[in-house]
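Hi support team,

I submitted a single chain yesterday and got back a structure, but I'm not sure I'm reading the C-alpha cell output correctly. Could someone confirm the output below corresponds to the sequence I sent? I've pasted both exactly as they appear in my results page.

Thanks,
R.
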Amino acid sequence: MDHTRRSVWLKVAVLFLIATQLRTEALVIEASGPQTVQKAEGESVNLVCKYTLEAVDTGELDIEWSNVSPDPTQKDNLILSYTVTETHHYDTSLSKRLKFSTDPRNGDASITISELRASDRGTYQCKVKKAPGADMRKVTLDVQTPPSSPKCWVEGAEEKGGSVSLRCKSSKGSIPLSYVWKRETGGAMPTTATQDAETGELLIKNHTDSYTGTYTCEVKNNVGTAQCKYVLRAYNPTNKVGVIVGAVIGALLLLLLLLFLIWLLLCCCHKKRYQKEAANEIREDVAAPESRPPSRQSSRQSSAVGYRTHHGVQYTPVSRQQSSVNGSRSIYRAGSEAASTAGNRVASLEYDHQYGYAV
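Hi R., thanks for writing in. Yes, this is the structure output for that exact sequence:
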C-alpha cells in the first residue's frame, strides 16, 4: 500500500516538474522598450514587441495587434494579424500607415505607424502564439500636437515711466504649454520684469529707454517648441488733455458735416417736389387748341346753302362783320342794294350761328 502511494506521488511530482519546465521554457515576449510612448502628430512611431521561442513551441506562429478599448465591457479592436501564410489589416484608417517593422518570423513582431494622428492615441496590445506557448504585451501611445508659432504683441502704450505688458500666445498645442520670455538684444532682462509661464505675459514696470530691444518668447510642450519676437520701444508720455480736446473738436465737426448733408438732402427733395407740382399746374391751365377757322369762301358757300330763301327777298353777300354788344356771337347784316321789283322795303337780316341761317 505504501509502495503504491509512493509511486503515485512520484508520478505527480514528475508531472508537476515537467509542467513547470514547459511553462518556463515556453514562448516569452521580452519586456524591452517603454510602456508609454509620446510622439507628435505627423511623426512615425515603433511599438516594440520582441519574443523568444523555445524548442517546445512547435505549433503555427500566430501574431495579433489590437487597440485595447478603454471600456472594459467592450471588446478590443483587432487591427493587424499575421500567420505563416498571410497578413490581414482590419482598420481602414490604419491600413496604409501600419506595417510590421521586420519579418515577424524572426522573433520581432514590432509594428510601425507613420503619419500619426490624434485619433491614434490609445493602448495597443501585442499577442504572440505558437503552441503550446503564448504571451502578450501592452504599449500606450500618446499622440500630442506640437505648439503652433505663437503671436507676440504688447498691451497698452510703450510709454516711459509706465508699465508695459508683453504678451505671447500659441493657438494650437497639447497642454501643458510653457512660455518663457528672453531678452535677445539690449542686455539682461529688466530687474522690474516678472513673467507668467502659463499665460505668457511679461510685465515690465517703470519702463525706460534702457529696457528697449528685442524680446523672444518661446513656447514648448512634450513634443515640440516654437517662438516669436517683439521689438520693444520707449515713447514719451502723450498729452492726454490735447488728445481729448482734439477728439471732441473732431466729433463736433463730424456732427456739423452730418447736419449739413441732411439739410442739403432735404433741400433737393423739396426742389424736386416743387418742380413736379408746377409741371402739373401748367398742364391743367393750358387751353385746348382752337380749331382752324374755315376759309371765307367755304363759309359763304355753307351759309348760302343753309339759308332758307324767302319769296320776294333778294340776298346779297355779307359785306362786313360786326361784333355784338355782349361779344358772344357775330352779327351779319345783309341788305338789298337795289330796289325790289315789287316795291317792297329792304329787309335787314341777322345770321344766327345756333340755327345756321339768317333770321
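A quick pointer for reading it: The mean pLDDT is 80. Let us know if anything else looks off.

Best,
Support desk
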